[in-house]
Description:
Layout: H1 3-23, H2 33-55, H3 58-92, H4 111-114, H5 118-156, H6 160-173, H7 178-196
Helix pairs in contact: 1-2, 1-7, 2-3, 3-5, 5-6, 6-7
Amino acid sequence: MELDSSKNLGGIGALLIFLGPLLSALPRVGGYTGLLSLVGAILVLIALKGFADYYRENGIFNNALYAIIAAIVGVVVFVSVLIIALVEFFADLGLNISNLQDWSSLSSIDWQTLGNFDFIFRFIGVILIGVVVLFVILVITVVFLRKSLGLMASRTGVGLFGTTGLLLLIGAILTIFIIGILLIWIAMLLLAIAFFSIRPQQAPSPPSATSTQPQTQV
Length: 218
C-alpha cells in the first residue's frame, strides 16, 4: 500500500472515531455512531498494516492487532459477567425462563427476598468485578496501542504519534473519571492530525539503482 493511501485511511479512520460521540446527539444518526466508530477503527488498523509493510516494521501492526483483540476480549468478558449477574439477580427474585410469561405479574416476584439486601450487594459486587476486569483489559489494550504508535513516531518522524499514545494511556488510567474519557476522545483527534502530518520525505529511501559494483581483483 502506498504511503499516501495509508496516511489518508488512518487520518479518516481516526476522524470517524473522533466524530462518533459528537454525532450521537443528532436525531436519526445517534444509533449509527457505534458502527461509524467501528469503521473508523478498521480503517486505522488497515492503515497501520500499510505502514508496517512500508517501513518493514511488523510491530506497528502486530501491537495494534493485539490491542484490538484485547479490547474484544474485555468487552466479551464484561458482557458475560453482566448477563450472569442479571440472571442470578432475577433468579433470586423468583423470575426465570420457566416463568417468563409471568414476569409481567407482580405476584411472581419473591418480595421476601427483595427485602433482603444481601443478594443486591452480591449483584453489585459481581458488576464491580466485571468493571475492574474491563478496566484492566482497557489499560492492556492501550499499552499495546501505545507501542504501535511509538514505532510510528520513530519511523515517520512525527512525534505527535508518541504524544497520542501517552494521552491514551493517561486517559485509560483515568477512565474512572470523566476527564479520562475526554482525554481518549481528544487523543483520536491528535491521531488524525498525526496521520495527516506524515510527509513523503519522511519515508525510507529506496535502495539506489546505481550502487557501486565491487571491484574484481586480477
